[in-house]
Specification:
globular; binds uridine-5'-diphosphate-4-deoxy-4-fluoro-alpha-D-galactose; Rossmann fold
């Protein structure tokens, strides 16, 4: 066993896949999760995939005292901080809920790591920090734009908080990983995304429509300045994304100097909404009921990653295709029924 990695939000979508990859790589994940947007059965499923039972603390990461009381004895060598609210639309209606949870938890986790002298921190950030970039593919040097939502702003603010903490605390080493659009599920179909209520994101909406939970998918706008008029995103298989977290942690463990760096995690390829629908239909042999509707407020037209920095810095690139991700997403949705 190579050491214990604290995974906040470890029962969530990306967190659970990362726990599997940490175990595959020889680490012992320790989960903190308050199960506000995740299910306890996910822990059993991780055990089914890996054979390992994960030590789990049902606590809120905003509570520093509880973190200290519960976790002081664990010999943690690094932390991957996923726990956060992530519904873009809700964040505009309930900004304080987002500012409080996402920012206070990051501050508490950083304080806890300082307290236990644990220097390795990986933060779950988002390409939303770029807004609509002027130049594509978007590199990490692209300017940070005014956030479209309070959710996006929490990611920007947390990146700044981590940066300031690294500058002040000369031992902390941190990466902010800026995800593009994570989709798909573990190929075992034992873990995947569990959206609460009506999904906001494209792929869960597609799979729920295909299975009959939703009547029809609406494509939000086909009058954008793109080849087929629909928005373009960089869709990354969640298993590839999870593996990048292991690589990022290993790079921090190797690094001696204080460091703060932001790294794009995407495939480097953009796909339109209609291309995703067509691919889903083709690889799963399903006809999807969809219609074209008006634009969704706040959507950027197109964004996809320049992935060269992730390759240089982490020796990581994606291995799984859009086809595989959409097959795995469908297997997962089918397994839920
Ligand atoms: N879309 C539809 N119909 C739907 C849902 C989505 O047409 O029912 C379209 C959207 O308009 C967009 C594309 O599908 O063009 C992708 O939308 P998602 O909601 O799946 O993803 P976003 O790119 O809007 O959002 C994602 C993450 C956010 C993050 C953002 C950064 O979910 O957390 O990327 O760009 F902030």
């Amino acid at each position: 066993m190579k050491g214990k990695i604290l995974v906040t939000g470890g029962a969530g979508y990306i967190g659970s896949h990362t726990c599997v990859e940490l175990i595959n790589a020889g680490y012992e994940p320790i989960i903190i999760d308050n199960f506000s947007n995740s299910e306890k059965f996910v822990l059993d499923k991780i055990k089914q995939i890996t054979g390992n039972e994960i030590t789990t603390y049902n606590i809120d990461c905003c509570n520093l005292e509880l973190l200290i009381n519960s976790l002081l004895a664990e010999k943690i060598i690094g932390c991957i901080h996923f726990a956060a609210y992530k519904a873009v639309g809700e964040s505009s209606k309930l900004p304080l809920k987002y500012y409080h949870n996402n920012i206070a938890s990051t501050v508490a986790i950083l304080s806890f790591l300082e307290k236990i002298s644990c220097p390795n921190f990986v933060f779950s950030s988002s390409c939303t920090v770029y807004g609509q970039p002027d130049i594509l593919p978007v590199t990490e040097k692209s300017p940070i734009k005014l956030a479209e939502s309070p959710y996006g702003r929490t990611k920007q603010v947390c990146e700044d908080i981590i940066h300031d903490t690294v500058k002040a605390n000369k031992t902390l080493k941190a990466f902010a990983l800026r995800y593009f659009n994570p989709i798909g599920a573990h190929p075992s179909a034992l873990i995947g995304e569990l959206p609460l209520g009506t999904p906001n994101n494209l792929v869960p909406y597609i799979t729920q429509t295909a299975i009959g939970k939703r009547e029809q998918l609406t494509v939000f706008g086909n009058d954008y300045d793109t080849p087929d008029g629909t928005c373009i995103r960089d869709y990354i298989h969640v298993v590839d994304l999870a593996k990048a977290h292991v690589k990022a942690m290993e790079e921090l463990l190797r690094t001696k100097e204080p460091i703060f760096d932001c790294i794009n995690l995407g495939t480097g390829k953009g796909n339109s909404v209609l291309e995703v629908i067509e691919t889903f239909e083709r690889v799963n042999d399903i006809k999807l009921n969809y219609k074209i509707g008006p634009r969704r407020e706040g959507d950027v037209e197109k964004v996809y990653a320049d992935t060269s920095y992730a390759l240089n810095k982490l020796n990581w690139k994606t291995e799984l295709s859009l086809e595989a991700a959409l097959q795995d997403a469908w297997k997962w949705e089918s397994s839920l029924n």
